[in-house]
Specification:
By secondary structure, the protein is mostly helical. Helix content is 73%, strand content 1%. Helix 1 packs across helix 4 and helix 11 packs across helix 13. It is globular, with a radius of gyration of 19 Å.
Length: 325
């Protein structure tokens, strides 16, 4: 099911509605249990932001080959879901998109293999979208940056002195690079000029940073029913995101006794950390950073060629800053 947010972008909604059955068709795992879990995850109503931005930026080109564009959009969602499955193993997440994770039902080994399988499906769709060696090199480099971002996160776990710069480097690899790839490749595969594709990538990178900061804010300030994942599920695993990093800088002494418990933190401890982060302006300060990146993205968007889709990109970017899920 395509999310309601796409109703205000009818052309993209149409493309995404056609993309979902296509995604299910390219998953051909003989292991039925894992096949069912992957198709559940793909059908569970993710926001499809990366394919959505891909299609929006494809409007800046004039080479609209439906099959190539669909394969390009599919590759992005498959890569995204593969990283989510691996994330769930690392973070021991019980739920993803409102359903039990693969690692919860079938163990971490099966989940890792499932994520690896989706990497192969991703590369298969990349080849359908373009056989240009330059495009393949770009995809490989992007995937390397994404995986490096995941490794960087693990190096930062349980550290009380994580800087804002280290956090931004980590989320750039973990999240923003895939937004960069989505926007750049949407423009490039559709035949947009190199200048427009480069600008699209810069916009995507900046949007990706703002998006991840907002995602981390929702862990502290969000509704579990809206986000469809347990609030603050990463905290016990030592993942300290921007709201906590900024609050720690304000009042380190109040947090350290709780955070030193690591995996032994109780639910009451987690709720106390949440309260302290809000009390020490961690959420407020993080929202200011997200606003800064959003404004940078909007500034870059204003430099795009004046075509109708430019206003849609502006509108979607503004929505990301005010979302609650």
């Amino acid at each position: 099911m395509v999310r309601k947010l796409w109703r205000q972008f009818p052309q993209v909604q149409k493309e995404l509605t056609q993309l979902q059955p296509y995604l299910l068709k390219v998953i051909t795992l003989p292991n039925q249990r894992i096949h069912v879990k992957i198709t559940q995850l793909l059908s569970a109503g993710g926001k499809l932001l990366r394919p959505g931005f891909f299609y929006l930026f494809s409007e800046f080109g004039d080479e609209h080959d439906d099959d190539r564009l669909r394969a390009g959009a599919a590759s992005l969602e498959l890569l995204h879901v593969a990283t989510l499955i691996h994330d769930d193993v690392i973070d021991r997440s019980p739920l993803r998109r409102g359903v039990k994770t693969i690692q919860t039902e079938y163990g971490s080994r099966n989940a890792i293999y499932a994520g690896d399988y989706l990497f192969t499906a991703y590369f298969n769709e990349v080849l359908k979208a373009s056989s240009d060696p330059a495009v393949l090199k770009l995809q490989i480099n992007s995937m390397r940056e994404i995986l490096t971002g995941e490794l960087d996160q693990m190096d930062l776990n349980y550290r009380f002195n994580v800087s804002e710069g280290e956090y931004l480097n980590e989320i750039t690899g973990k999240t923003a690079v895939l937004f960069w790839l989505s926007c750049h490749q949407g423009a490039a595969i559709a035949g947009a000029s190199e200048a427009v594709a480069t600008l699209a990538g810069q916009i995507g990178l900046t949007i990706g940073r703002a998006y991840q900061i907002m995602d981390d804010i929702l862990d502290y300030d969000g509704d579990e029913k809206a986000t469809r994942k347990p609030v603050l599920e990463d905290l016990k695993s030592g993942v300290y995101s921007l709201p906590l990093i900024l609050a720690l800088q304000q009042s380190p002494k109040v947090f350290k006794p709780l955070l030193k418990k690591k995996q032994d933190m109780t639910d009451a401890d987690v709720l106390e950390v949440q309260r302290l982060v809000i009390e020490n302006k961690g959420v407020e300060l993080a929202k200011a950073r997200a606003t800064e990146f959003t404004e940078q993205a909007l500034d870059l968007i204003s430099s795009l060629p004046d075509v109708p889709v430019k206003q849609d990109i502006d509108r979607l970017t503004r929505w990301l800053l005010t979302r609650n899920q």
